[in-house]
Amino acid sequence: MNTRLRTVYLLAFVLVAAGCGREGFVGPRYTTTVTRSWPAAGIHDIRVFEVDGSVRVEAAPTNEITLNAEVKGRIKPREDAQNKGLFTTEIEGDTLRIGRRENKRHFRFFFWDRNDVSISYVLKVPPSVSLDMRTVNGRIVTRGMEGETDAETVNGTIDVEVSGLKQLTAKTVNGRVRAKFTKGFQGAAFKTINGGVEAILPNDASFSVDLAQVNGDFEAAFPLSIHSQPGSRRVSGEVNGGEHRLKIVTINGDVELTRLGDKL
User: 186 with 114, same domain?
Assistant: First the structure.
């Protein structure tokens, strides 16, 4: 069989499979909810890693950490397995790890993912824990956190509300970054390729801006002493003495620095 004929047969197979429908080709879809809880004492860090799915973390006056995960996909849940066999949770020292490990049998064929699984995690935690959250396709949201926060996604927005008493890092490739600092500012770094950046800071925040921007507008509600060179794509400036660093990198997107009192 020559190469051209093999290509024709392969194309015919793909078209027939598509005509049969994804569910008929790879099996039914399941929607499953997994709930877990752990004593918060002794857990200082929470790390979440996901491929397809969102992460939301809410601070609460609680002595335990609770997780509600909604799983959608073609993996049948196993009632006899931890987390119904859909993802892993483990405590290592003072760190709680949540997410999916690499599955060597997991593969993609053209536009099909054999398992086609997405997981949406909602966590309620004491405000002081540190967060390290990473996903490939999904949104990351936090509310009321006071610990150090690191959020990273490839395709998705990042919308974080933190006290600003610890460092914040937020990175995405395709998506917008929005960060609200409710009590103070101790430094932050934001990076996005296709998307804007909005930072909402207290009126008395002391920071120095280091901005690298290619395409987009820059607006600041603070009195900013701007330093730049003609033809340069970098802008720097200081607010209230410039004590802490605010680093922003974006390729295609607007950048806005807003006072906390101006937005809810």
Answer: no
